[in-house]
Structures are given as structure tokens and as C-alpha cells.
Write a structure and sequence with these properties.
By secondary structure, the chain is an all-beta fold. It is 0% helix and 52% strand.
């Protein structure tokens, strides 16, 4: 089993920054990649960013490219993935979810490829 716990969400003005964290515990030694997704009210969950756990290669949605940065810290007992969000816009408002993939190598942008999910953290950007 794997547990994912997100933190760092909150209310910020447009143009501001936030850093989300996702603490992963359990059998994380076999994780292939991790990602961030978001879901706004009335919309489907969408890919934001992904990172390969071994190589650190990254993948971003076009809507956040150049503004968001995903990174990871690997440790024996607990691994952490971060999402640094700069130049935030009101359209970035959503619940942000962390996810872990144990099946395929490489950063993935497909929701169904991920096996475990966190509970989500709310990000609200005011105009």
C-alpha cells in the first residue's frame, strides 16, 4: 500500500505563488512516476505535471508550462514530490491531487495510468 498526503494549498492573489507538497509513504521504492492533477468545479480532473522517479524527467500541461515546476526528493522511508506554482491565474483555481504510478516508466499524463491518489488540497486564486 501507498499513502499520499498533499499540503500547501490555500488562497493567493493572481500573480502570486504557492508550493504544494505530496508526502508518499509505504512501498514507494517501486514507484515509477508521480504526477499532479487538478479538478475545478464542474470540470473533469486534468493533468498538470508529471515526473519520472528514477530519471527526474518531467512533463507539463501546456497551460502551466513555464509557470509550474515539479520536483522530487527521494528518501528511504518517505519520498516527497513538490509542485512550485508561480504567476498563478484565477483559472488555476482547483483541487490539486497527487498521484503515483507503479506500472510504466516515464512521466505520464494519463489519469488512468496512476494507481494511488491523495485526498487533494484546495488552491484558490483571486483576481
Amino acid at each position: 500500500q501507498v499513502q499520499l498526503v498533499e499540503s500547501g494549498g490555500g488562497l493567493v492573489q493572481a500573480g502570486g505563488s504557492l508550493r504544494l507538497s505530496c508526502a508518499a509513504s509505504g512501498r514507494t521504492f517501486s514507484v515509477y512516476s508521480m504526477g499532479w492533477f487538478r479538478q475545478a468545479p464542474g470540470k473533469e480532473r486534468e493533468f498538470v505535471a508529471g515526473i519520472s522517479w528514477s530519471s527526474g524527467s518531467t512533463l507539463y500541461a501546456d497551460s502551466v508550462k513555464g509557470r509550474f515546476t515539479i520536483s522530487r526528493v527521494r528518501a528511504n522511508a518517505k519520498n516527497t514530490v513538490y509542485l512550485q506554482m508561480n504567476s498563478l491565474k484565477p483559472e488555476d483555481t482547483a483541487v490539486y491531487y497527487c498521484a503515483a504510478n507503479f506500472k510504466r516508466y516515464g512521466p505520464l499524463n494519463i489519469l488512468q495510468e496512476y494507481d494511488y491518489w491523495g485526498q487533494g488540497t484546495q488552491v484558490t486564486v483571486s483576481s
